[in-house]
Amino acid sequence: MKLKYFFSILIFAGLCSCVGKPIDENISKYYRKSWGSVYFTDKPAKTMAIYGNKIKGANAKTFTPLAEVIAKDKNRIYYMNFPQPQVDKESFLVKEDGTMRDKNHIYFPSLKNRNEFVLKILYNVDLETYGSYKGHSGWAYDKSHVYQGYSKPVDADPSSFAFLSENFMKDKDFLYTLFLDELKKLKIETDSLVVLNETYVRDNQQVYFFDAENTNDFGLIPFHSADSITILAEPFIIIENKVYNNGQLLNNGNIDIPTFRVLGEGYCRDTSHIFYSGKIVPTIDTHSFELLTEGFAKDKQSIYFMGHILKNVDSKSFKIINPLYFTDKNHVYYIYSSPKTGKEFFLIVDKANPETFYHNPKKSELYGADDKNEFYNGGIIVKNN
User: Fold this and answer.
1) How many CB atoms lie within 10 A of CB 71?
2) How far is it, in rounded angstroms, from Cα 122 to Cα 86?
3) pLDDT tens digits, residue range 236-261?
4) Bridge partners (DSSP) listed for residue 179
5) Residue 373 dihedral angles phi and psi, to the nearest 5°
6) pLDDT tens across 283-341, in order?
7) Which of 163, 271, 351, 358 is most deeply buried (CB count within 10 A of its CB)?
8) What is the rounded distance in angstroms from the CA atom of residue 179 to the CA atom of residue 339?
9) Backbone dihedral angles phi then psi of residue 2, each to the nearest 5 degrees
10) What backbone phi and psi angles, to 5 degrees, belong to 40?
11) d(Cα 71, Cα 270) in Å, to the nearest integer?
12) CA–CA separation, 199 vs 208, rounded Å?
């Protein structure tokens, strides 16, 4: 009996460590070895079930991670769990800036047939001068081009191209921003450009922003003195005693500047009004208005979501479960669409108990559960009995 129990323990331990610890956690947490095989997985190391994608043909003795999802063994290079026979293994390296190359080519990550990850060759690139912009994933250059998405040449001057911020770039002749995967540009004098926040930059005469809502092009706001500009959290700014939201004049300029402040998550206020995304929020009580989180706010009588009153929701028992679920004493609610449509944008979750409803942080925000059932996307899916 004791011998049988001993072997049970061994089997159990084997299952617990079936893909072992990361081979080199300082480089990658995704590659692991177990029982002479190599696995690619992002599951916790202490799981009690067999998991992960076994890398077929990988040599466990020589297998070494090169980057988070790049590895090699004595025979080949791997991207995730897929071998890359097109790559010259002996000369392949991943540089500090994230670029991948061998003696013949530059490579960039891609998806093949919707289920196979590959390193594609970047053709017509200068191997000697190719590099990436540190801190700006997907951007690269060589002596002749600037590349977006590592591989798409864009119309910019590589010798003077530089990032002003996360949203704005410049070269010697143009100001740039990326909009819907397209590089937009404005011809201006760029030497004097100053970043105000992630929505605005200025030169000595004008403030520039990208007007995505109206023109899909750059807009500008003239000013007489830089001292008249007050920098706020994006997307707000004060220019010559006028408040702008995403480049648009807030409330036609009718703002009490001394009491104006940004609340966060799209909300701002002055002494008379609450605003969300540039529009007045029809508040019941302005003085007691308070920002919560996840787009929610409240006053002494009502709950608000993204600037809209949640009608028939009990404010005293209101509770945020996660960004998609909330409760009051009567119901569990699920947010299912954008309030920009002007229609009701939450639904009552049928058969959900608001007193016991919770979210398991290990699962997607689409999931929720109570003491009897589990829910997904606002609907019941599993009985917990």
Assistant:
1) 26
2) 12
3) 999 999 999 999 999 999 999 999 99
4) 182
5) -135, 160
6) 778 889 999 988 899 998 899 998 888 888 999 999 999 999 999 999 999 988 766 66
7) 163
8) 23
9) -65, -40
10) -115, 120
11) 56
12) 8
